[in-house]
Amino acid sequence: MLLQPQFSEEGSNKRSFENKVYGAFTRYLREVAGGRRGTVFLGKVLRFATGSEEEPMLGFVLHPSIKFTVAGSFVPTANTCANTLNLPRPSPDTPLPPDQKLFHFYDLAFSNTYFGLI
């Protein structure tokens, strides 16, 4: 995968929450790749995280990554300067929403033309 996840230590509580949201994110990407998310396509996801819809011929200087964050919302954000997709994860106080609702948040973010600044 082009976006490499930065997981917490194996066996930690944080890692179990990260695994849940990462599993949902990979299901979402399969839907995107299959053309089942409307106007969202894989290039838009990459553009959201990096500012580019395609991988450069010689690759990225900073390899694109996924950083797991705790936030009040499950809408992802990005830092295009660092090629980082900030993917909100659940916590003991905030459970992961059902896929349909979570995927709607992802659609809103990746359809955005402001490169992660929503």
TrEMBL record:
Q: Where is the active site?
A: C81 (glycyl thioester intermediate)
> One GO molecular-function annotation for this sequence?
ubiquitin-protein transferase activity
Q: Name one Pfam family in it.
A: HECT
The chain positions of domain HECT read 44-88
Instruction: Note whether Repeat occurs among the keywords.
Output: no
Q: Which key words are in the record?
A: Ubl conjugation pathway
Domain of life, source organism: Eukaryota
Task: Look up the signal peptide feature and give its range.
Answer: none
> What protein name does the entry list?
HECT domain-containing protein
Origin organism is Dreissena polymorpha
Give the taxonomic lineage as stored in the record.
Answer: Eukaryota, Metazoa, Spiralia, Lophotrochozoa, Mollusca
